[in-house]
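Training component of the fellowship. As part of building independent skills, the fellow (R.M.) carried out the full modelling exercise for a liganded target. The chosen ligand was zinc ion. The inputs are recorded below so that the supervisory panel can assess the work.
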Amino acid sequence: MIEPGTPIRAQQPRLALRTACIATAAVMAASSVLVPAAQAQESAPRGGGVPIIRDAETEQLLRDYARPILKVAGLAKQNVKVVIINDTQFNAFVMDGRHIFVNAGALMDTKTPNEMIGILAHETGHLAGGHLMRMRERLAAAQTQTIVAMLLGIGAMVATARSGGGVGIGGAMAPAEAIRRSLLAYARTQEDQADHAAVKFLTETHQSAKGLIDAFKRLSNESLFATQGANPYLQTHPFPQDRVATLETIAHASPYYNVKDPAALQLRHDLVRAKLFGFLDRPDTVARRYPMTDTSLPARYARAIATYRHSNMASALAQIDGLIQSEPNNPYFRELKGQVLLEGGKPALAVGPLRRAVQLAPDPALIEIMLAQAINASPDGTKHADEVVRLLRSAMTQEQDTPAIYAQLAIAYARKGDLAQADLASAKAAFYRGDRKNAEMLASRAKTRFPVGSPAWIQADDIVSAKPKPN
Ligand SMILES: [Zn+2]
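Fellow's submitted model of the complex:
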């Protein structure tokens, strides 16, 4: 069963909608300094990294939303990735210039593709404006963790405790408040710039900024009635009263203001939202949101997933078969069937639906990993070891640092009798899991099996010398 916040386990990965931890040095480093929107929510990076969601369908949708926007923003070649954070609160932010982070809650809250695309356009505005670097420079000047923490809304007490407890709060308050105001004013300027950039990007891609305005209006209305704690997005994106009015004026000037999302895209959006609700919400909430009287595809999708999470495999499979009948060419219904069977202990039965899902999906890397896992776990897995290697090599072109790839690859190579490659793959699996000790041990053993100086030997040697990344 997939629960919010469950970190991925390397040996038994939860694939389709699964969670993982980003613990890369870059992200962790970025998260320890303030950036305009890397925020003070409870789920913010702490120790083990950010809990993220990996899901082929959701990622594909966000890529399709972001691609045209990034292109007109001049960021097509920067390989900017949209990362989904396992958090049901609305938030979206940028951290390091290469990622746009979107909470699952932002997708769950946006009613149309246009709203989500608007949010992405705004975040792209921050990226294109180089706001991160400039904010960091300002922070470097401000320096103290107390001020950063106050700006983040964590509270001075926490920061004092973290910085060793020696800093008196009273004495630091007055200058801190002045600096906080100056930084907030600076952040507001950045928000205005990002809004303007968003409208420009949306207009250049012949899309409306109406969704962005609708999302902002809803957020600020909700915050008026919030009983405890402000919405994290509003904390990170200062929201003066006149901001929406300014945005509306420039948005209305666009000839594309009344453009509607294509119906097919709206359906994809609704399916992704249904999937996230199905996986992340309580079953009774899912039942209320998607009552049996709602026979739409998204409602049936959400109910099938909630049923599966209830461990009622037979009923879930019957519902998923119904979905496949309605849309035989939807790769993600097949993927879900494969996932239910695989996690239900029937890997051999999962292989068929997953093979079909791989054929149908535009970017099947994550599904290829699950298929490899299903084949490896099947009674006749040994016979198909070559197919497993092929699948994982293909997945690797997109997912270089996913431990599950190397764990499954090690099994297939061992079955083929290639112990050198099996050791190297096991070493990489350990390395990407963060298990440096085993990684080094396995890589040292792999080195003895390859000709000295060969490409595989060099990869093993990189792990032994604990360079940041093998490959
Ligand atoms: Zn912003």
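The panel noted the following from the submitted structure. The longest helix spans residues 169-204. DSSP finds 23 helices and five strands in the chain.
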